């Protein structure tokens, strides 16, 4: 699904991605865990073709960058991030935002059929935001905006769904509700390959089969969830001794 080989990216003399290798196979779901500034968002921008590495090879959904038309490829990738939220027209109604996803656009410029409206409402129902359909995006809470954004991404029936810190800014209950929804996506038929970016180990749900640990633009480790969620390995990664507890199949960390 994704093949990143020896990718090196620098801007203004700063190395942002440092000879990064990462392979995502069909059937896997990945979490990317990294400290602030480790290059996670930059990696996502590379995968979506918004920025170009200085060296290395990028292949996404079988398409090799340099030999493919990126806008068409992007319609096959759902990307949920705060960077995307900023680009919406906040006066648009929630359902218009969701419907725009069908066309890979930021605003709804197309005529829509009754079936497309029903599809949008059905995703909104799935994410408990159908009642917000006619409310303008600017008047939604952060949690509601996140749910609308995920419904929007699913409208395009993406083969890869990237969730970049979707729980950022959410309270405990909103966060757990959203994580439950993400688990439901993972359990669903025709689930896209999930890529979930976070700073928080406890958000790495059992549905994520693999974890990439990023630090200073490098891949420190990329392995199965069971291998990565290890006290010694994470202590080395964070550079501080941490204790790890498993509760309800999720790992919870505390600094010792
Ligand atoms: N155009 C640029 N020029 C110089 N430095 C940049 C540029 N874009 C990003 N950076 C730097 O690259 C590093 C990685 O940024 P990036 O946003 O990818 O990190 P991140 O892991 O997503 O961080 P966070 O978890 O805080 O969102 C940061 O130190 C950032 O300041």
TrEMBL record:
One Pfam family from the record: ABC_tran
The ABC transporter domain, residue ranges: 2-241
Domain of life of the source: Bacteria
InterPro entries: AAA+_ATPase, ABC_transporter-like_ATP-bd, ABC_transporter-like_CS, Metal_Ion_Import_ABC, P-loop_NTPase
SMART domains to which the protein is assigned, alphabetical: AAA
UniProt keyword annotations, A-Z: ATP-binding, Nucleotide-binding, Transport
Name by which UniProt lists this protein: ABC transporter ATP-binding protein
Lineage: Bacteria, Bacillati, Bacillota, Bacilli, Bacillales
């Amino acid at each position: 699904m994704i093949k990143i080989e020896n990718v090196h990216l620098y801007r203004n003399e700063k190395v942002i991605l440092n000879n990064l290798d990462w392979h995502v196979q069909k059937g896997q779901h990945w979490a990317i865990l990294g400290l602030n500034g480790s290059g996670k968002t930059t990696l996502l921008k590379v995968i979506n073709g918004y920025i170009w590495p200085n060296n290395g090879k990028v292949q996404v959904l079988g398409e090799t960058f340099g030999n493919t038309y990126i806008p068409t490829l992007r319609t096959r990738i759902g990307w949920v991030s705060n960077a995307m939220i900023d680009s919406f027209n906040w006066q648009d109604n929630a359902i218009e935002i969701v419907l725009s996803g069908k066309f890979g656009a930021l605003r709804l410029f197309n005529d829509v059929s009754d079936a497309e409206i029903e599809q949008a409402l059905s995703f909104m129902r799935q994410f408990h935001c159908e009642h917000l359909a006619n409310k303008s995006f600017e008047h939604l809470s952060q949690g509601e905006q996140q749910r609308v954004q995920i419904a929007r991404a699913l409208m395009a029936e993406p083969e890869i769904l990237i969730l970049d810190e979707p729980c950022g800014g959410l309270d405990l209950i909103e966060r757990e509700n959203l994580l439950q929804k993400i688990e439901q996506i993972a359990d669903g038929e025709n689930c896209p390959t999930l890529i979930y970016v976070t700073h928080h180990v406890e958000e790495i749900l059992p549905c994520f089969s693999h974890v990439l640990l990023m630090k200073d633009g490098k891949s420190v480790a990329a392995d199965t969830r069971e291998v990565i969620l290890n006290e010694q390995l994470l202590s080395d990664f964070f550079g501080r001794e941490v204790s790890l507890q498993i509760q309800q199949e999720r790992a919870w960390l505390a600094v010792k």
